[in-house]
Specification:
2 domains, seven-stranded mixed beta sheet, 37% helix, 17% strand
């Protein structure tokens, strides 16, 4: 019995030492492309040697993200939960029907169930912010368009689990649109257009939070139509005939990464390839992809006299950038929710588009006082 216990202890110590041994021999267990987050970097001893506690904490964080065989263990865990038990490996992702996955964090479930609704004071605060932004811009002869991007669960409700149910019939998007209409604000509601178009095309990614090219194209047309109603110098939106369909097989996207299954899940990325040249080019940062998720991205059309635009946006605008940029001599995209007058004064646009995803109406509180 003593010998058996000794063998068991030795075997246990050998197994738990394997990850560290793998690191010592130069094998990094991380797979940065497999998870939808930034992994902890190795600490700089030069910066932390005077603070042993900080060095220890950063080393521990690095090891937790890079220990040997970590990527494989994460993948095996995700596969066992999803394919054996039939449930999502993480509470951040909802497993829907037909291979669809939905985002569950950042108040996405509350947005789906419409609970809780905005209070009267919250609605009034939003209305005050929109009216202040519109008035400040109009006094400077600048067009203003406010757009709400619907989450995937709004357009593809039929793929959500039956166990998650709508609590109230009116959403926060409905409440804000009604308040904006009452104030005469040009608000773009793309939900009906997307629902009408989804019968002919899949408009959102199955393993990602966002719309694909074809969904973004539907929203882009509505946004440009709203802009043109205030500034006719902006050219009409491109038509579907200006693009050819293309499909490419890709690794699972952000929701797959949250489950540790980027390398396991795959889907068809339904793209639109322009049949006429795109003129807009990214000038800042130089060489960046137009769909890159950057805090500040600038496109220009060389030699163009078209109006200039400032787009206040979140991640849903990334797929809009290649479409919108063709309509402005210079377009500046700022990743933020707040409307800040100083940004406008610095960029001197003719048009301001403010885009926000519907679920952010739960956790973003506008600040009317920012508009002087």
């Amino acid at each position: 019995m003593a010998r058996a216990n000794l063998v068991l202890v030795v075997l246990f110590l050998a197994i738990i030492s394997l990850p560290l041994a793998a690191n010592v021999t130069g094998h990094d267990g991380a797979d940065p492309a497999a998870e939808n987050r930034e992994l902890a970097p190795f600490p700089s001893v030069r910066e932390t040697w005077r603070q042993p506690a900080v060095l220890l904490a950063k080393t521990s964080a690095w090891f937790e993200d890079h220990f040997g065989f970590r990527a494989a263990l994460v993948r095996w865990y995700g596969e066992s939960r999803l394919f054996v038990l039939g449930v999502s490996p993480t509470t951040a992702v909802v497993k829907g029907g037909g291979g669809w996955f939905f985002y569950a964090d950042d108040k996405a479930i509350e947005d789906y169930t419409n609970d809780p609704p905005m209070t009267a004071s919250e609605i009034e605060n939003w209305k005050t912010a929109l009216v202040a932004a519109r008035g400040w811009l109009n006094a400077r002869h600048i067009a203003y368009v406010f757009a709400i991007a619907p989450d995937k669960h709004v357009i593809y409700r039929e793929h959500m689990p039956a166990s998650i149910r709508e609590v109230a019939p009116v959403s926060r998007t409905d409440q804000l649109l009604a308040a904006a209409a009452d104030a005469g604000i040009a608000v773009v509601d793309v939900r009906a257009s997307l629902i009408a178009a989804k019968g002919a095309d899949r408009l959102y990614q199955k393993t990602d939070t966002h719309w694909n090219d074809r969904g973004a194209f539907v929203a882009y047309r509505r946004i440009i139509e709203a802009v043109r109603a205030q500034d006719p110098r902006v050219p009409p939106p491109w038509t579907r005939a200006d693009f050819s369909d293309a499909t490419r097989d890709v690794d699972g996207m952000d929701l797959a990464g949250m489950m540790g299954l980027t390398r396991v899940l795959r889907e068809a990325d339904l793209r639109l390839v322009p049949t006429r040249p795109r003129l807009a080019r990214v000038v800042d940062p130089d060489g960046a992809d137009p769909t890159a998720e950057l805090g500040r991205l600038v496109t220009e059309i060389p030699g163009s006299t078209l109006p200039r635009a400032l787009i206040v946006r979140d991640s849903f605008a990334s797929r809009l950038v290649p479409f919108l940029s063709e309509h402005f001599s210079r377009a500046v995209y700022l990743w933020q929710n707040d409307f800040l007058p100083d940004d406008v004064l610095r960029e001197r646009p003719d048009v301001v588009v403010q885009e926000i995803v519907g679920r952010h109406l739960y956790n973003f509180v506008p600040s009317p006082e920012l508009v002087r």
